[in-house]
Amino acid sequence: DTEGDDPSPFDGEPLPDGGIGEWIWVEFPDAFCRDGSNAGIAVRYGLENKLMFFFEGGGACFNDACDFTAFNIPFVAPIDGIFSRSNDANPVRDWTMVYVPYCTGDIHAGDKDTELGGQLRYFHGYTNITRYLEILVPSFPVERVLLTGISAGGFGAALNSTQVADAYGEGVELTVVDDSGPPLSNKVIAPCLQAIFHEVWGLDNTILAACPECSPDDFATDLLAHVIDGYPALRYALFSNTGDQIIRTYMGAGWGNAMYDKCDGISTPVPIKAYSDDLDAIRAKYEEAISTFYYPSIGHTVLRVSYYVTAVGGTSVPQWLADVLDGQITHVGP
User: Fold this and answer.
1) Based on C-alpha coordinates, what's the Rg of the chain?
2) Would 57 disulfide with which of 136, 152, 219, 306, CB 3.0-4.6 Å?
3) Is 302 inside a domain boundary?
4) Alpha-carbon distance 29 to 32, whole Å?
């Protein structure tokens, strides 16, 4: 839980100084990308005593095919969507922002060296976040933290929510906004696929260590329950397209030959109805505890390119985010 005498247990070296609105790159010698090179973060100082922690998205590496997925993309300062400092509709435009690139291939959740395709892969996304927190927490005091990300970064934001909450402690208000990394049950993420994630990424060392009661074959669903029960002050919000083609395709690795829980067949996208039914189940179960924004589309992610142009029933995504940050529990879309 978040209780403790010291809300800031880390004592790492502070971040370097930077001007307001200027991105600075910080490489960490003890944080690693999938290829073993050093990982890092980019920081842009803002005007308010508030921090956005953004996890980038990308593919997932859990078999030999991950060689065809791009990782280690060079950092390019983001200026679109939720990163805009000039659009008044953006409720976090003046916040300090920490950008976590995606170079680990483990949805920011792993801590294991695994051989795939005859090469050793370094899956340390979760422990990288630990290293970053050791520097971020003491570098500057904040009153609020928004933990968010898109796609693999959305999964990562949710899966790292407990360690971020523990790092900042009770004195800091934490909101998690998961964009397109929904906590799907094993009705969608088949048990055989969850077993592969568990083994390849070393989830015993990370999220399952943080949540001992979480089932290895239903970890995302169980972790959400763990967070809601154990961290009542934490606010959680989920955005998803109701037929997200990208997530359904990745999770289709557990639907081989269009058969549920078959990981040795030809990967087939999860049926739209199975995916949307799971989203509905999440909303129904936690209607009074979390916020949701479901968009009727097969598209993927919203916080970057389509942030200002996505709306349902007159409510835009920036307005929904502002309501969530204000402490409202709100549900938008079908």
Assistant:
1) 19
2) 152
3) yes
4) 8
Type of residue found at 150: I
Q: How many domains is the chain built from?
A: 1
Quick one: what percent of the chain has pLDDT higher than 90?
Answer: 86
- Which CATH number do you get for residue 86? 3.40.50
Tokens for 34, please give them: 């999938």
71 phi-psi bin (left φ>0, alpha ψ -120 to 50, beta other): beta
Average pLDDT over residues 253-272: 95
**Helix, strand, coil content of the chain in percent (nearest 5):** 30, 20, 45
CA distances from 221 to 86, 157, 163, 278 (A): 37, 14, 17, 10
Please provide the average confidence, as pLDDT, over all residues in the chain: 92
- Write down the H helix ranges in the chain: 125-139, 152-159, 161-168, 191-201, 207-210, 219-230, 245-251, 272-285, 317-325
Query: What b/e readout covers 87-111, taking b as 16+ CB neighbours within 10 angstroms?
Result: eeebbbbebbbbbbbbbbbbbbbbb
195 lies in a domain?
no
Confirm whether 277 is domain-assigned: yes
Q: How confident is the model at residue 126 (pLDDT cuts 50, 70, 90)?
A: very high
Q: Does residue 197 sit within a domain? A: no
pLDDT (tens digit, 9 = 90+) per residue, 27-58?
Answer: 999 999 999 999 999 999 999 999 999 999 99
Model pLDDT, residue 5: 37
| Residues in Cβ contact with 130 at an 8 Å cutoff, skipping those fewer than 6 apart | 163
Domain of 312, in residue numbers? 26-186+209-244+271-332
